[in-house]
C-alpha cells in the first residue's frame, strides 16, 4: 500500500474543503472558490472533476448568476459533516432508533453503526450528554440505554462475542453469546444470538440486559434463522406454556391489522385465509382473542383446544337456553 505524499494529502484536504463549501451555499463562482481555496480557477476545475469522479453531481453554468452548484444525483455519495452537524445527526438517529420516529428504528440503528466507525472521540461525550436529554412520550418502545444499543450493534457488526447479565427466575445470570441481529418490535428491542452455554439460538430483550460488554473472542457466523420471524414467533408464542394455531377465514392483511405483531404470527394462506399462531398462559385466553376477531375460524393445534371449543359452545348454548327466542316479525 502506497503512503500518500505531502502533495497528495494537500490535494485531498483541498477537495474536501471544496466539498464543504459547495454544501454550504447554493452557487459559487469559479473565482470565489479559487479565492477561498487559495488556488487558480484551473485547479478549481480539476478539483470539481475529482468530486464528480467520486459521485458528487457538481453542475457548472455560464453567464450572470452562473457558477458551480452541488445538485442531487442518482446515488448517495459520502457526506461531509462538521462537528455540530455530526452531533445533531447522531442525536436524531438515537431518537429514531428509540422508536420516536415510526418505522425508522432499524434504519436509524444501521446509520448509527456506520457513524460510529468515524465519529471522533472528542464528539462522543457531547453525543452522550445530548442523547440523555432527548425523551419521548406516548406508546413507543420500552426505553433502552443508547450506549447498550450501540454496543450490541457493534458486536453484531464485528462478529465479536458479547456478555451480559440476564434474569433467570429469581436471579440474574451471566450469558455468553454470539450476537447475530438486533430486532425491533413496535414495543421493544431484541437481540437474536447463539447462546454458548445453552448451545442454541435465543432472543433476549435488550431492556432486561445489564452490564453489557464486548468480549475479546471473534467467531465465525453460524447458519442462522431469519431474525425477525424467529424473534416474533418467540415473543408471540414460544415464551408461553401453551401454543395454538388457527385457520382464520379472512385475508392475512385484515387480521394483521387487528392483532399486534407481538401477540401473534399471521401467515398468509391464499387470498382469503390465514394461519394465526399465538401463545398464552391459558388456552381459553387465546381462544377468546381469536373469537373476538369476528371471523370464522378452525382450530389446527392442539387437539385439546378443539375439545375445549365444543365444551365452551355447549356451555354458551346452555347459558342462553333460558332466554326466549325473539319472534319473527311477519311482513305486512
Provide the spatial order of strands within the biggest beta sheet. 6-5-4-3-7
CATH class bucket of the largest domain: Mainly Beta
- Report the portion of residues in β strands: 15-25%
How confident overall, as mean pLDDT? 81
How many domains comprise the coordinates?
A: 4
Q: Specify the CATH architecture of the largest domain.
A: Roll
Multimerization status: single chain
Shape: elongated
Count of discrete alpha- or pi-helical segments spanning 4 or more residues: 11
Low-confidence stretches: 1-6, 133-139
Total number of beta strands: 11
Tell me the span between the first and last alpha carbons. 98 Å
Please tell me about this protein's structure.
By secondary structure, the chain is α+β, with helices and mostly antiparallel strands. The protein folds into four domains: 10-70, Winged helix-like DNA-binding domain superfamily/Winged helix DNA-binding domain (Arc Repressor Mutant, subunit A), CATH 1.10.10; 83-131, no CATH class; 146-229, Roll (SH3 type barrels), CATH 2.30.30; 240-317, Alpha-Beta Plaits (2-Layer Sandwich). Helix content is 41%, strand content 23%. It has eleven helices and eleven strands. It has helices at 6-24, 30-37, 41-53, 83-97, 105-118, 121-131, 146-158, 227-238, 252-256, 283-291, 303-320, and strands at 58-61, 67-70, 160-168, 171-184, 189-195, 200-205, 210-218, 242-248, 265-268, 274-280, 297-301. A five-stranded antiparallel sheet has the order 6-5-4-3-7. A hairpin with a 4-residue loop joins strand 4 and strand 5 (189-195). The protein is elongated. 23% of the residues are buried. Mean pLDDT is 81; it is low at 1-6 and 133-139.
Amino acid at each position: 500500500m502506497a503512503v500518500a505524499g505531502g502533495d497528495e494529502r494537500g490535494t485531498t484536504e483541498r477537495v474536501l474543503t471544496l466539498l464543504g463549501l459547495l454544501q454550504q451555499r447554493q452557487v459559487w463562482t469559479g473565482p470565489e472558490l479559487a479565492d477561498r481555496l487559495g488556488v487558480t480557477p484551473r485547479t478549481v476545475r480539476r478539483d470539481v472533476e475529482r468530486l464528480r469522479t467520486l459521485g458528487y453531481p457538481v453542475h457548472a453554468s455560464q453567464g450572470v448568476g452562473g457558477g458551480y452548484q452541488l445538485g442531487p444525483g442518482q446515488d448517495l455519495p459520502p457526506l461531509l459533516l462538521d462537528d455540530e452537524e455530526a452531533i445533531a445527526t447522531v442525536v436524531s438517529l438515537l431518537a429514531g432508533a428509540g422508536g420516536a420516529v415510526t418505522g425508522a428504528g432499524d434504519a436509524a440503528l444501521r446509520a448509527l453503526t456506520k457513524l460510529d466507525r468515524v465519529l471522533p472521540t472528542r464528539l462522543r461525550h457531547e453525543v452522550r450528554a445530548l442523547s440523555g436529554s432527548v425523551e419521548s412520550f406516548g406508546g413507543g418502545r420500552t426505553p433502552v440505554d443508547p450506549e447498550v444499543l450501540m454496543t450490541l450493534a457493534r458486536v453484531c457488526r464485528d462478529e465479536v462475542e458479547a456478555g451480559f447479565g440476564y434474569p433467570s427466575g429469581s436471579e440474574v445470570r451471566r450469558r455468553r453469546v454470539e450476537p447475530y441481529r438486533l430486532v425491533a418490535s413496535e414495543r421493544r428491542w431484541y437481540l437474536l444470538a447463539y447462546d454458548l452455554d445453552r448451545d442454541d439460538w435465543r432472543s433476549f430483550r435488550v431492556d432486561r440486559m445489564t452490564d453489557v460488554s464486548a468480549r475479546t473472542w471473534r467467531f465465525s457466523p453460524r447458519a442462522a434463522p431469519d431474525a425477525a420471524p424467529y424473534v416474533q414467533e418467540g415473543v408471540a408464542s414460544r415464551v408461553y406454556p401453551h401454543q395454538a394455531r388457527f385457520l382464520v377465514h379472512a385475508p392475512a392483511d385484515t387480521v394483521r391489522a387487528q392483532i399486534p405483531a407481538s401477540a401473534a404470527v399471521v401467515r398468509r394462506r391464499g387470498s382469503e385465509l390465514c394461519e394465526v399462531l399465538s401463545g398464552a398462559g391459558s388456552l381459553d385466553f387465546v381462544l377468546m382473542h381469536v373469537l373476538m376477531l369476528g371471523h370464522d375460524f378452525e382450530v389446527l393445534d392442539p387437539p385439546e383446544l378443539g375439545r375445549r371449543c365444543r365444551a365452551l359452545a355447549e356451555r354458551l348454548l346452555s347459558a342462553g337456553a333460558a332466554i326466549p327466542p325473539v319472534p319473527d316479525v311477519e311482513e305486512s
